[in-house]
Write a structure and sequence with these properties.
Distance between the termini: 21 Å
Number of helices: 17
Number of strands: 14
């Protein structure tokens, strides 16, 4: 199993590794363990310990997330090619665009079967033209060297099925979540709010995601600033979980708009389920997603949500009332006004909390479709089933 960064394996593929092991496979992991764009050094070292406990060997491959770093791509190709020749794999399961191109070249040269999970193509309806110019022809070309292409949202599935040449194109609704983890507990919720220094009057708004341009946290800060003159705005607390290169820019933006006391950066967190349960409203403002786990987790905790009207998000949230244009702060501002203002035109938590919950009741049914405790887990097992007679990967 290979990906550009270790977080892709640690966050989205630990269940897959254990499924393979239960089926009798030995599993190795290859990625760039030196990358710190998503995970801290401490988290990467913890991940290595987790792999050791699972008896998974892991290997350093110097991938780059940038498609333009040609010399580094050559190096990572050489590293992976040497690894594949030495270890004699039955198949490779690859993730992330750059690592997956290199993996498919290596797999083709060594006649190794390959599964590629596309966690959201970089080209999509409304994507920048440069994304189509750079990524579309590459994915189309290398689909010829893909035995099974797994897509995680309906738009990608339809495009890949119609336009690409993979042996099989399958739709799996994301990596799924275990809903048993998200049972609300009023005592734990109160304890988490106290930990965040929130009073019963404070309205907790939560976003989860890397601090990057793609995750688009700035539009929430800008929209909230438009509401700062409302009575009771001082009760609003906006928490962002994640780390990334945009941290200082987002802090400066909040300072410049005069809402620095309302915006809080929590960094990398391992208690997202608890934070979701403590929150009054969850916002996912991304410009691009595959099928976002953060949004699944918020829905699973029955936390009211607002999210950008993009591919992936709209697979989960069907009601346009809770979707907004991620490039338009006024669009989000209007939604926030509708959700947060009481009948007096101010903001008071006691008067809006029941309305927030009622408005999002329909989301409870959506998450049942991606619960890994049921058919989702079985479907993943089928993806890994091999037919010994013809040595091909089979999807039933």
């Amino acid at each position: 199993m290979t990906a550009t960064v270790p977080s892709m394996i640690g966050q989205f593929n630990m269940n897959n590794i254990q499924i393979l092991q239960r089926m009798g496979y030995e599993v190795d992991v290859a990625c760039d363990f030196n990358d710190r764009s998503v995970w801290t050094t401490r988290r990467v070292e913890q991940f290595k310990i987790e792999l050791n406990k699972l008896h998974v060997d892991y290997f350093q491959v110097d991938y780059s997330r940038s498609p333009l770093r040609i010399l580094k791509h050559i190096k990572s190709y050489q590293q992976l090619n040497r690894l594949v020749k030495e270890r004699g794999y039955d198949f490779i399961h690859c993730h992330t665009p750059v690592a997956s191109v290199i993996s498919r070249i290596v797999a083709h040269e060594n006649r190794v079967k390959i599964i590629y999970t596309a966690h959201g193509f970089h080209f999509y309806d409304g994507a920048p033209l440069k994304n189509w110019i750079i990524f579309y022809p590459v994915e189309k070309l290398f689909s010829r060297w893909t035995d099974v292409l797994i897509t995680i949202n309906s738009e990608d599935y339809e495009r890949a099925k119609d336009k690409f040449s993979a042996g099989k194109v399958e739709y799996v609704p994301g990596v799924g979540i275990d809903t048993n983890k998200f049972h609300s507990d009023i005592i734990h919720k109160r304890r988490k709010r106290e930990e965040l220094k929130l009073t019963d009057r404070d309205i907790m708004i939560l976003s989860v995601g890397e601090l990057s341009l793609r995750k688009n946290h700035k539009v929430v800060i800008e929209a909230l600033a438009e509401l700062k003159n409302l009575e009771g705005f001082d009760q609003i607390r906006y928490f962002i979980c994640g780390q990334g290169e945009q941290r200082e820019d987002l802090q400066r933006l909040a300072n410049g708009l005069g809402i620095e006391n309302n915006v809080h950066f929590l960094g990398y967190r391992t208690d997202i389920d608890e934070l979701c349960q403590a929150a009054d409203l969850f916002i996912l403002p991304s410009l691009q997603e595959g099928l976002p786990v953060a949004l699944m987790e918020a829905i699973a905790t029955q936390t009211p949500v607002l999210c950008s009207d993009i591919r992936g998000n709209s697979d989960l949230i069907h009601n346009p009332k809770f979707l907004f244009d991620p490039k338009n702060k006024n669009d989000l501002k209007i939604l926030l006004q509708d959700e947060l203002k009481d009948e007096r035109g101010g903001i008071e938590r006691e008067k809006i909390i029941n309305r927030l919950q009622r408005n999002n009741d329909n989301n409870k049914e959506i998450i049942k479709k991606i619960d890994i405790s049921g058919s989702f887990r079985c479907f993943i097992c089928l993806l890994y089933t091999s037919d010994a007679a013809d040595d091909s990967l089979r999807v039933d």
